[in-house]
Amino acid sequence: MSPTTTESPVTAVTSAAATTAPLAFFYEHPQWFNPIFAELDRRGVSVLFNRMSPSADRREHGSAIFHTLAWLGQLELQGVRVLNGTTAFRYEVSKALQLSLLSSLGIPYPKSRVIHDPGHAVAAAEGLRYPVVVKPNVGGSGAGIVRFDTPQALQAAIDAGTLALGFDHIGLVQEFIPARGGHITRVETLGGKYLYAINVHLTGETFDLCPADICQTARGEALANACVIEGAKAGLKVEGYTPPAEVIEAIERIVSAAKIDVGGIEYVIDDRDGQIYYYDINALSNFVADAQRVIGFNPFVNLADFLEAEVAYAQR
Prior knowledge:
With 316 residues, the protein is of the alpha+beta class.
């Protein structure tokens, strides 16, 4: 049975039997989730879980972000099983809260300060190593992150009125970590467990690292089904990778504490001293484009298995 879709300018709920399905998809982006819809349709299964994007404001849907947080809380109070529910989504939409979680777990992260006024950025950066980056608290795919190499450059942006803190007017001033090997690592998890990891090779020209939109393998091969969402990502390349056991253990601790059912964690190795820093917790996780070629299997099959199991559990 093909899914039926009810759409508004902001969100859509998709299910084969939208009025009776024990689970459903709640999402904002019009294309990111087509692969999992196709896999579930192939199986004749329909489900729904929270896929709201923190980058919705970039598509003029920002008003739905905190509405979603309130709505998820209502559903949970009514006894509805929500995948990537209130706790997970709260971490998704606050980079400051993500760092507080990492601190509580004793997991290293880049030295950072939280501000609510762009004019405070230079003072907040005192004691940090330059370069620094200023990040909107509500991010998504690296949106709005700007690097500053000197206090003078940061002050110039403040004076020019170009330093934007983003949707909730909160931002992070954070030490920029030079990436060893020229890449960051993103680890995807499913059901609280490690699923796969990729190295994303950086160009220095963008912080927009959505894995679904990366266009090339590290060998320079074009990836199928990429570059169709937000446009090609300035020469970014990707390769499959298996992290050390201690990294996998740390990441599983993070997603467990954040109550993330399906998510991705990013970390970087500081080229100056080899220290690992975890810096981004994602409850909205878009699997890498052309995964069969990059990591050797189709993670949407795993995701569909997981969702089928959730449906079966909810129907008991």
